[in-house]
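Friendly challenge for the regulars: who can give me the structure tokens for this chain first? No prize, just bragging rights.
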Amino acid sequence: MFGDAPRDLPQEFAFYLVPEFSMMPLTAAIEPLRIANRLSERQLYRWKMYSGDGKPVAASNGFVIACDGPLNEADDRASMIVSSGLNVQNYASKPLVNFLRKAARRGCEIGALCTATHILASANLLDGYTCTIHWENLPAFTEDFPEVRVTGNLFEIDKDRFTCAGGTASIDMMLALIAAQHGPELAADVAEQVLHSPIRHHSEHQRMSLPARIGARHPKLVGIIEQMEVNLEEPLSPSILARQAGLSTRQLERLFRRYLDRSPKRYYLELRLKKARSLLLQTNMSVINVALACGFSSPSHFSKCYRAFYSRTPYRERGIPNIERDLDKTHAS
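First reply, four minutes later:
Bragging rights claimed.
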């Protein structure tokens, strides 16, 4: 189980870098290990970087990271961590999936940083486990893997699988590991070194609170937006939203105008379009199915709204040629 005391020191980590990986989660995972070594004056942890062919890998920010070799040269005893970022759905290659499955069969601990949870799920390595993924990828992940238990928490450690949402959540996951293996005092000292206080529990939510995100703390406004966010596939009418909040539709309209400078209808539409863009970029769902998943019964209406908001059509977002667009329309008719 991830977090159990290692049989031998130093404990080895093999980081597999997927092209376009996110730099912050990777460095946030490694730095606590480095600092734990320094503060304990022992080599508790050791890590190496790997890629598919052993060549350097470019992160999403353009930095190129040298690797220690191809993945098949990693120590069999190492805990495997896949690190990815943008366009993760393009990188669940058959060789990588096969390698991870073989590692799982020999009892290897396998983890994911940021969007790499998608790769583990593609390899069926999260069946029966609880996991998490970056909040921006959560809608697409639940569409692609409806059978996988996924949360919106900072990180999840479930037996020999461990996943984190990315960003600074990697720090919290590694601090939890250090605390479990070498005591909470060392973990606290490491947290202070990286100015990360307090240490966050795994169950804390990734995103800021809704009042902080919208810049308003009006309880009825917050409650209405919460209802909107959980009812994107089948949008609620303004009259239903108003009635649920104990308001008239006119009061609802004034509330949104005052705090958000737009109508409730417009705000709701923007929520649905943002989810649609996420699904277009992060899944292989057809444009028609994306439209339906975001509450648009008409593909043409969806395309019109999308173009007005993003200045491009859903098909242009994906770079789909006209022949495929015509094919999609034929399937819809």
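The domain at 210-332 is CATH 1.10.10.60 (Arc Repressor Mutant, subunit A). Residues 322-327 have pLDDT under 50 and may be disordered. Your move, everyone else.
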